[in-house]
Amino acid sequence: MSNVNNLSSGQVTNWFKFSSPSAFYPLAGKMIPWFWTLTIIFGAAGLWVSFFVAPVDAVQGQGYRIIFVHVPVSWMSMFIYVVMAAWAGLGLIFNTRLSAMMAQALAPIGAWMAFLSLWTGAFWGKPMWGAWWVWDARLTSELILLFLYLGFIALQASIDNVRRADKAGAILALVGVVNVPIIYFSVKWWNTLHQGASVSLTKAPAMAQTMLWGMLLMALCLWMYSIAVGLMRVRAIILEREAHTDWVRQLNEVKQ
Amino acid sequence: MNAFIAIVHRDLLLVMRRKSEVLTALFFFVIVTSLFPLGIGADAALLRKIAPGVIWVAALLSTLLGLQRMFAADYADGTLEQLVLSPNAFTALVFGKIVAHWLVCGLPLVLLAPVIGIQFDLDAQSLKVLMAALLLGTPVLSLLGSVGAALTLGVRGGSVLMSLLILPLYIPVLIFGAGAVYASSVGLDITGHFSLLGALLILALAFVPWVSASAVKIAIE
Amino acid sequence: MWNSSAEFFAMGGYALYVWCSFGACALVFLLEPLTVRARQRAIIRRLQREVLAEQFDQKGGK
Q1: Is A48:A214 a contact under the CB 8 Å cutoff?
Q2: ipTM of this complex prediction, to 2 decimal places
Q3: Alpha-carbon distances, residue A216 vs A42, A67, A75, A220 (angstroms)
Q4: A168 and B168: CB-CB below 8 Å?
Q5: How far apart are CA A215 and CA B189, in angstroms?
Q6: Which chains are within 8 Å of A by 3+ CB pairs?
Q7: pTM for the full predicted model
Q8: Residue A98: inside a domain
Q9: Interchain CB contact of B60 with A (< 8 Å)
Q10: What Å distances lie between residue B29 and A182, B109, B154, B167, CA to CA?
């Protein structure tokens, strides 16, 4: 298949050809170093702002700096779930294997983000509010999101037929993504109903501009990271699932 | 319409022939609710406070027990495949199975719950609210549960996996259902809870049968 | 902002919480890519073995 961007003959690249695993594999391989570079750049900038630019908080002292990881991983855990569900949905509608592989590649990343959100939330809550765990609306929703991720991964792991696993996972992810707003709303209500003192981990200290920048930069860093690792993992998945095909056997790394 | 009624009739008939399956799920409900006072203590005030949550969680778990039956037997002996291939709308047939499941698992819970509520020293008004909330909530449990049952058809360790998949989805029903009873017991307004339970039911009725039907077709392919 | 590196590591008394948080994140973001790379290497190794085995069979087991 020709790698065509033949302007002289008036042809344009057909982007849909990258929905074939054999075309996407080398493309992903080329993109990965770029995303790692961006990850490091944004990460360095974000960490520098987090530790050396953002001022100390009047109420929470130096401890508030945890928000520079807590908030980004929380954002990413939710964002990745939506993206994962979108890929899975595309795979279901268009019956493309690669879309389903992409969803499968993203799931563990999102699950780790959700876990880290809970972990950093606990380490933030302990010094600030005296408890390792509070049934705050967002932490509780993050916990449920982690369950949704684990359910998706478990379902795909337990179905032997790969295409059935793809489609079943897609349905689960789509049902999940519709339910996440409902779950979040219901947990928020439950939280206001039962909570005595209104402590909330979502009440971050009053946002100085620098704090916002720090969180944004860290979020961008994690976004680039997720894409990089997602592409890495999807390449492994492609090789595993397409092991029997000719193009895989012809790969340089396999032939030597 | 005929096919829908036929499926409901058939599933009910099958259940009647093996009543023990259903009755064990109901006994499970009774036993589990009895475990909590044994584990926590018999202080009436405390029991009244935890009753809505305990009864609702036990209802969730009992529904899960009964969900195994929805598709598994028909899947194993090939009937499900025939149903998919039949000229009737498969969504209607799936809906029939869900209705049959609710009649057998959900409705008895609604009727049993006041008895358990009395064990937990709930007042009469709260008992009525409990029944009404369960009446709105248990159909949603059957509906959402059917998605999990369909996704895990024929999978090794499917029943435990199904529980893990569905329980997060049950959480809104749990929150609003138990919340309604708790609100009634402390004298707060319950209309909000019931509107939301009703909304969940309507949403589930509108979308879930179709989703479950798709999931079953995927499992059968 | 920081008068000394000791002050930086102490984080105004919150050292345990801040460094455990950032540390856990660093650990995950380091180990996850390494795990994926190991998975990639494993599948490549498996494919190489299969290609060799096929060649061996084709040559008549010499």
Answers
A1: no
A2: 0.90
A3: 9, 11, 10, 6
A4: no
A5: 40
A6: B, C
A7: 0.90
A8: yes
A9: no
A10: 27, 8, 26, 16
